[in-house]
Structure formats: structure tokens, C-alpha cells
Amino acid sequence: MRKIKKFFSKSLYLELWASILAALIIGVVSYTILEKLNYKIIDSKWVKTNYVPAKTEEAITDLQNYIDENNLSSDDALEIYYWCKRHPLFYFYMQKDGKIVYNYYADYTSDDETTIAEYDRELLENSNLNYLYTFKYTIHLSDGDCTLRGFEDFQFALMSIIQNINFILCASMVIIIITILVRKKIHYIKEVTSGINILEGGDLNYNIPVKGYDEIANVATSLNSMRIAVIQQMENEKKALQANNSLVTALSHDLRTPLTTQMGYLEILKEHHYNSPEEMDKYLSTALDTCHQIKEMSDRLFEYFLAFEPNPKRADDALDEYDGMDFFMQIISELTPPLMEQGFRFDVKEPSESFTIKVNADDILRIFNNVFTNIDKYADESSPVEISFVKDETSAIVAFTNTIRNEPRKNESAKIGLISISSLMKRQGGSSLTRTSNNKFTLELKFPVIS
């Protein structure tokens, strides 16, 4: 039953048609039951012995009063005809001294005397139809008494009234059931609309209730997903703004010191306030060192903005094809010598087969510069740095593994080098992964291969 309900609740159309069908079934079943009850009422003893006789007595009394009030005689058949028109369920004829004075078959407003006489003759001759006449009374006319005999249709009229009541009740039931089911959906639509208004007002913590599985529930689910995505985006933007503010503040403070020092030494050199060429060289060397410090800080600032670039993917025409191993080994051969002079050792494991990649050379150079800068800062030179290459059908992975120093060789930066590497890898259609285990740090660069 639950599965059937879930199936019909997947669509508003199915729900509406199911509601209409269910309401009609309930209405038809109810009408059938009420009709059976109707027939029992019509055939009941109360109707036959109480209701019908009472209505007949009421009609006879009304007829007698009408005759008395209008002082009708046996010659006033037309006036009696008018009374009968107002009582269509009461059929009778009146006979006085063996003569028919009123015949329910005749139309006294249009039939001529010959036609009426023919009806009267047929009525007297068809004595075999007397079983149709269910009542017999004596009526007092102004010119004497007459016999009234006839039949009534009060039982059929009562049945028609009850049938109409049953139909109205069942139709109302169908309308009420459909209205209740539709009203439930309208209330839910109003609830979702109210939730949208709350979200528009800025309360993104409000969760729109999800009821059912239909289109309205899908809208509520989508709105909640969108709300969560907006919250996440706002949090990311807030974090990025905070990081940006922190970086700008830190760089502003860090840049002020070397700039002040550099300006001081340049002022000394400009004014020739030195005593020997050796002292001049010392001032120049110090000013050059501060230039390197400023360059390093500006590079960090560039990396930061690159890391948080909203659309990192490069256009296809900005990428070039390279032989993977030759390209990577050339970069590694250029970046390892300075570190080897400091005591670092590198263990390079080449893959068994060649591969081709499509990348941007400037981006790859920035990536590897970041990698080797991190090695310089955080790797322990007493253990070799492992560089391995792994290739499968769709990608090539360059992995760098080093032992972590107890303390960094240099002061820690804004810690965005790895974020910058990740962003630059995305620009090539690749990805990066880092993991730390047993005092070992591993960075994997995954590049899509062409062949």
C-alpha cells in the first residue's frame, strides 16, 4: 500500500487523478448503499401504513375543503380539474348516481364533450381495472354526495425525494474529498512560498519542509540544496576574504621592514656615505638581499590570488603537447642542483613506458617551483627525496616523497603553496593529492595523458 501511495505521489497529475478516482469510487459506493437503504424505506411498513395513508387523507381533506369553499357541484368538473393540476400525484374519478362527474383521463380545458363522454364510457366498461384504485371515499358536493375512487403516487414521490437527497449528499462528499486533498497541496504550496519569502529575507538557516515526492517536494528539495550551496559559497567567500585580509596585512607589515632597510642603504649609497669600496659592496649586497625578500613576498601574493581564481581551467589553445618524461626530467634537472648543494639527495624512478601530456609550460614551472620550495623548507636532507612516475591508461602521476624536518628550514609562509599547486593543476585538467604517514610527506601530481 505504501509503494502504491509513493508511486501516485511522484506527480501532481497522478495525485489529482488518483484523488478524483478515489472520491468518485467512494461517492458511487456511498450512493449504492444509500439507494439500497432508500428501497428498504420505500418498502417499509411505516411508508405503507402511515406515510401513504396520511398523505391520502391530507389530499382528500384538501379536496373537500376546496369543494366546500367554492360550493362546487357535479357540474363543476373544470374547477376540480384545476385542483388536480395542483396535486399531480393524486389520480381519481368521481361518480354520482351512476354517472361520471369527473374523470382524471380527461382534459377539461381542451377536450370536447364527445371525447369526455367516450372517456367516461371506457372508465365504466373497464371494471377489470378496479384493482388499480387503492382508495375509495365519499365526497360531499353542493348537489349531493358522490363516490371518489382512485390511486396515488406518494410512495414514488418519496423515493424520488430520497434519491435526490442521496445524490446531493454523495456529490457533496466527492467535492469535499477532492477539496480536502487539493487544499492539502495548496497549503503545502503556501508553506513553500512562505519558506521562499523567509530565504529572500536573508534567513538562510531556514529549512523548507519536504513533504512527499511530487514536483512541489522536488522544488522544496532543490531550494534547500541551493540554500546549502549559497551558505557554503558565502562561507568560502568569507574565509577567502579573511585570508586575503590577513595576507595583505601580513605582507604590508613584512614589506615595510625590507623596504625601509633598502631605502636607508640606497640613501647612504646615493649620498656616498661610505668609507671604502668594501663598505659600499656591503651596502649594495644588503640592498640586493632586501630586493630578494620583496620579490619572494610579491611571489607569495601572486600565488595567493592564483590559488583563489574562480575559473582556473585554461583554454585548450593555451596548452601544448610534450613528451612527459623529457619535459619533467628537464625541469627536475634545472631545480635539483641548488638543493643538492645544500645536501639533498634525489632518487628518481622512471616509468617503464613513455607518455604524452598537454599542459601549459609556465604553469608547470610554477608548480615544480612550489614543490621544490616546499622541499627546501620542510624536507629533511638526511633522507633522500623520492621522485616516482606511474602511468596507466588515462593518466600519469608524478609523486614526491620526503621525510619531514622536525622544524622548518625557513619561516613558514601563508601556507598557500599547496593550494596554489592544486589550482594550477586544475588549470591543466589534472589534480593534486597530499598525504602524510609515518613522518613522510607525499605530494602526487596527476596529469591526463594523450597517449
Question: What features would you highlight for this structure?
Answer:
single chain; 451 residues; alpha+beta; 5-stranded mixed β-sheet; 4-stranded antiparallel β-sheet; 11 helices; 59% helix; rod-shaped
Summarize this entry quickly.
With 451 residues, the chain is α+β, with helices and mostly antiparallel strands.
Count of helices? 11
Strand order of the largest sheet: 6-8-9-11-10
Give average pLDDT, whole number: 83
Task: Extract low-pLDDT stretches.
Answer: none
**Roughly how much helix do the residues carry, as a percent range?**
55-70%
> Helix/strand/pairing class, anyone?
alpha+beta
Radius of gyration: 53 Å
What is the strand and helix layout of this fold?
Elements: H1 2-8, H2 12-42, H3 45-70, H4 77-85, E1 90-96, E2 99-103, H5 113-125, E3 135-141, E4 144-152, H6 154-200, H7 215-270, H8 277-307, E5 320-323, H9 324-341, E6 346-349, E7 356-359, H10 361-378, E8 385-391, E9 395-403, H11 417-427, E10 431-437, E11 440-448
Parallel strand pairs: 6-8
Antiparallel strand pairs: 1-2, 1-4, 3-4, 5-7, 8-9, 9-11, 10-11
Q: What report would you give on this structure?
A:
Strand 3 (135-141) and strand 4 form a beta hairpin. The protein is 59% helix and 16% strand. Helix 8 packs across helix 11. It has a five-stranded mixed β-sheet with strand order 6-8-9-11-10, with helices on one face. Strands 2-1-4-3 form a four-stranded antiparallel β-sheet, sandwiched between helices. A two-stranded antiparallel ribbon has the order 5-7. It has helices at 2-8, 12-42, 45-70, 77-85, 113-125, 154-200, 215-270, 277-307, 324-341, 361-378, 417-427, and strands at residues 90-96, 99-103, 135-141, 144-152, 320-323, 346-349, 356-359, 385-391, 395-403, 431-437, 440-448. The chain starts with a helix and ends with a strand. 14% of the residues are buried. With 451 residues, it is of the alpha+beta class. The protein is built from eleven helices and eleven strands.
